[in-house]
Fold:
Amino acid sequence: MKLNACEMKPVASIAPWATKEQQKNRISVNHYHDKLMGCFLGKNIGGTAGAPLEWIRQVNDFQFYMQELDGNPVPNDDLDIQLLWLIALEERGLDLDAKTLGEYWLTFVTPHWSEYGIGKINMRSGLPAPLCGTHYNEYKDSCGAYIRSEIWAAIAPGAPQIAAKYAYEDAILDHGDGEGTYAEIFTAAMQSAAFLENDMQKLVEIGLSYIPTECATAKAVRFVIDAHAKGMDYLELRDKVLGNFRGCVSGAIPDTASEDDRKKGLLDGNLGFDVPSNIAIVIIGMLYCEDDFEKLMRYTINCGEDTDCTAATAGAIFGIIHGQSKIPQKWLEPIGSTIKTGCLNLGELGGYGAEIPATIENLVERVSKIGKQVSLAYESAAELVDENQEPLAGAEMRCEDASVFEEMAKGPIYSFDFFDIQVVYEGGPAMRSNEEKKLVLRIVNRYKHVEALDIKVWCEDDLTVLPGKSGRMLIKAPYFRGPVFRGNMECAEFTLICEDITQPAVKGVFQITSPGRHTNMCVPFTLVNANLQTYNTDFYYQF
Structure:
């Protein structure tokens, strides 16, 4: 998906949340800088504070840092990948999509654990996003994406519609159509809005407006909101959240749960189904802390689970809302403002990491330069003004149609001058010998008139394509149809059959041309040879 210079656009149409006719939001440069500092200082503190207790299912008694820090934070992937995205923005400009981010991921992200590794291996197998994040990925509902949302909020302050779109392109690399993608969209939208809105209840509602109402992440968040309104104790609420939305204990190892939690019946759960409960814990910390940073750290980390990630995200949200000054010096002094990395390929990033920001101050300086570009480039972005003007939330920050991200996550999207083409793999991107596999091309016309398109399928001779390998379609103009994914498209359905698949993958190309024009659009497809494996992602562990 491309980010257009005039305003944010998802597939083939102006975004349903576009603010073209509304008053632009306004943020002063000083206000912006202060909240950026608060964001990344809070992120660094939370990631360091929560690290020693990470992925232990227990109620903790956290008070303060548990490590000997010597003035430095601990390395943490929560921030590392965001530094890489900053470099991508600086090198490639604002027009970033999952394809470009994926190239950076393959070159510079070193771990192979959980969703990081599955996404990477799927990319290397030829599967583009979102397929690389969906296919055979039992961790697509886990926490690896929402922890890196701050960069998108930071470059799009007061413009959650923009932050959410970037977050989507990021998250689908390793979470595809899973809850992990919805979680990053939710946090990015909420954090972006926090540059203008201080009320946590309103921020949560803004974030929820960008994700499907029925997704587990949204349900877990609303569960917390309702329980908090009824006055439930935060640790009792923690137990209720895990009772309703938990995944299995870390690594499916029973010893990573406390005896108390075993007695409460909180041991079992789906492997990798981690993000709904952990997002809920972030919201617990924010709602119960009473605008006190120390309470925020204690309450969030005391709930257990992915403590470095929950505390880091909560710290970042707090820092954006309140700015740098509300973060106590007590929490800053032990770690300073340096940045330590742990999962990036330093040898390729300017000679042992010279391209990576060394301090929070340097990170904020570089992020703010990108933020100023976004402010000028996109009509729906907030306006960054001089220090003497008051912040203004003049434009609606909620999304009118969160289902657009559900539709986008159904398959990779290829954007051309006047058309966007999505390939939907029914049943996933795997194929077995003598099995029917259905692919659907969803074609959206972004030009002003009706167009004819010729489609030809280029593939191996032993691949049967029904109803045929070539044909012509009439693609109606946008004024004949409603909003995108509500009818502003035409669909071409193909059934593929191969009697004997002998290669690791079945590959081909849809070549789409327009009679009388030089238009030539090539859309690839890849189907993994699944003859030897049953792709079942319904993993479950019971102890």
Observations:
- Confidence is low (pLDDT under 50) at residues 1-21.
- The CA atoms of residues 39 and 316 lie 4 Å apart.
- The longest helix spans residues 29-50.
- The radius of gyration is 23 Å.
